[in-house]
Amino acid sequence: MDIHLKEKMSENMEIVIPKISREKIDLFESYYDEISRWKMKMNLTSLHGWELVRKLFIESLLFSKLFNPISKICILDIGTGAGFPGLPLKIVFNDIKLHLIEKDRKKISFLENLTARLKLNDITLHKTRIEEFISNIDYPDHFNLILSRAISLPESVISKFCSLLKDDGLYIRKQCSEPGDKLKFKTIKLDNPWNKNDPYFYEAIGVDELK
């Protein structure tokens, strides 16, 4: 990562996470460099430069606006790919206990290398499909949060993995949006998640302040 991109990343991350430390910015720089290195031999993402920083790092951190990340909570990130949104949240909020689901073996290898290089702990990688994870998991009422950034699941599957949430748990998914729209997240509470009278709580988080 060149110095100008790092400065822009740091400046914009401070908008989302005030007083983010220089050490954490350095970890994001290492994360970016690892993605760039591994992209030459596998399909991690087509994004690069500022678009990668904004759409993967900063948008992942915006998830934290919808829950309290200070307490030690357990998060399940489904279809994490190159670690989004779970790993950026883990970098900033180190007390998080994180589970990452990814079916692609090469991406799991990338995540194993990355978490070791960044010296992140309390992370469990699951090389499996979401449906298989639900069928075989021994974590009933285990997760405070289930997050997804880039996948859309049918209601039947969402209803099943909501059983993995604690009583006050929450499922948060990034909403697809048109260019120029504000970033939107869909949140589903465990209690009666498919109540058609009040199905979802939408939270629009603007990225207009980003520079």
SSE topology:
Blueprint: H1 3-16, H2 22-39, H3 49-61, E1 74-78, H4 86-92, E2 97-102, H5 105-117, E3 123-127, H6 130-136, E4 143-148, H7 155-161, E5 165-175, E6 183-189, E7 201-205
Parallel strand pairs: 1-2, 1-4, 2-3, 4-5
Antiparallel strand pairs: 5-6, 6-7
Helix pairs in contact: 1-3, 3-4
Outline the structure in words.
By secondary structure, the protein is an alpha/beta fold. The protein has a single domain (3-205), classed as Rossmann fold (3-Layer(aba) Sandwich), CATH 3.40.50. Helix content is 37%, strand content 21%. The chain has helices at 3-16, 22-39, 49-61, 86-92, 105-117, 130-136, 155-161; strands at residues 74-78, 97-102, 123-127, 143-148, 165-175, 183-189, 201-205. Strands 3-2-1-4-5-6-7 form a seven-stranded mixed β-sheet, with helices on one face. Helix 1 packs parallel to helix 3 and helix 3 crosses helix 4 (86-92). The radius of gyration is 17 Å and the shape is globular. It starts with a helix and ends in a 6-residue tail after the last strand. Mean pLDDT is 82; it is low at 190-209.
Sum up the overall morphology in one term: globular
CATH topology: Rossmann fold
Number of self-contained structural domains: 1
Average residue-wise pLDDT: 82
The CATH H-level superfamily is Vaccinia Virus protein VP39
Record field, number of beta strands: 7
Structural class: alpha/beta
Q: Which strand order spans the largest sheet, edge to edge or round the barrel? A: 3-2-1-4-5-6-7
